[in-house]
Amino acid sequence: MIRYDVLKTLLPVLDDSLVVCNIGSPSQELASLADRPGNFYMLGTMGLCSSIGLGLALAQSKPVLAIDGDGSVLTNMATLATIGNNPVGNFVLLIIDNGSYGSTGDQPTYASGKTSLAAVASACGCETVIECTAEETAKVVKDALASDAMTIIVSKCESGNVAVPVIETDPVVIAHRFMAEVAR
Amino acid sequence: MPKQIDQQIVDDLVSQGIDFVTSVPCKQLAGVLEVIDQTTAIKHVPSNKEDEGMGLCAGAYLGGMRPAIIMQNTALGVVVNTLATLIQFYRMPLPMLISYRGEVGEKVACQVEMALHTKALLAQLHIPTYHFHRPEDVAELPGILAHTQMSKKPTAILTDASFWGAAQ
Ligand SMILES: [Mg+2]
User: Fold this and answer.
1) Domains of chain A (ranges plus CATH)?
2) Across the 184 residues of chain A, what is the mean pLDDT of every consecutive 10-residue run?
3) Contact A51/B86, CB-based, under 8 Å?
4) B146 contact A CB<8A
5) The CATH number of the domain where B146 resides is what?
6) Helix axis angle, B4-15 to B141-151, nearest 10°
7) What is the ipTM for the molecules in this complex?
8) How many domains is chain B built from?
9) CA A63 to chain centre
């Protein structure tokens, strides 16, 4: 399974969760699979998906799923220390770890080498860290969203992208409809 | 030990509805941070780097809070992309309370190097910029914070060594 397949399995478990989605292919694939007002698509700013997700979870009580990637988390690895030290029960960080920079041509990341992001998350103080297969991911995410424990999930999947259009929705529209969904 | 000016700045933040603060510390801003940590009306989540902090602020804003970031001017070298592609692109209000290191009174020569670029970078990014040089300049803070929310822009409040040195 590649990222697109994992995202497809997630759709039935999202319910009314707020989703913050990583820049590039992940956001484009999610938007083409199932656009919804509760999706915040990152159009720029590599690395900050998990930070936006944590800020959102701290600010309000609805469940938050940040769909991040291995390359993005490596870019902003200190985020795991901030997350570990500021646990909040409505936050789930899903790191789709395909071992590559998917949006830029599938160049390998260090997560495909010696680096374990699950081990880094644990060392940073995150108490519930689950590494799972691509096939297991939807079930693990469903349980994590329903639980009161902040959860970091590292989903190991294959490298690869699906050709989908870029997101043309204006960023101000994305933010506006998302904030209306938060307030709903 | 915080000074009266530190308390006044935090009181202004609270009165203007700022309820979420992230920070990367600077010696000049230590008193403000100390008061913030004693202020229950503000949730303070320290960050490791300022771009990460702006991500936290973006999330808090989307979640209905009013964030601010406290940082040093050297960090403008870190956050240019984040300001342009996140805070400005999505039109998010974000007051940046900035320690303006490298101005007259500075003891560390290296700090002067980024001071030279500070206002140029802010001007290049079209960020409304306010410079607190004398203690009485702090009276502008509530208006600046209200202006930030109204315009939905990042704004920069530069606070230099003369300001902190003379403030009570
Ligand atoms: Mg990847």
Assistant:
1) 3-183 (3.40.50.970)
2) 98 97 96 97 97 98 98 98 98 98 93 98 98 98 98 97 95 98 96
3) no
4) no
5) 3.40.50.970
6) 30
7) 0.98
8) 1
9) 13
